[in-house]
User: What shape does this take?
Amino acid sequence: MPDILIRGMEMPHNCFQCPLSVLKGERLFCEVTKEEVLRAKLAPECPLHELPEHGDLIDRGALPQGRVEWDDIFDAPVVISATKEETE
Assistant: This one.
């Protein structure tokens, strides 16, 4: 299954703060996993993962097999562009 990146979204501190959770009566559910979650902490099976600030992330599989030159790396397709702070 492919992944998605939501730019500008900060990692929630608990499931109750997460925009991907929904209250159904008195119970809180994750819209991604469809599981009931606790309000005070992140569920261990939380599908969200925080990315550190980074430069351009490239497709390593697009690099030539064997010897790789610097130009190959610089010309590799960018899968995720650098974080905003990194590009300024």
In short: The helical segments are 70-75, 84-87. The longest helix spans residues 70-75.
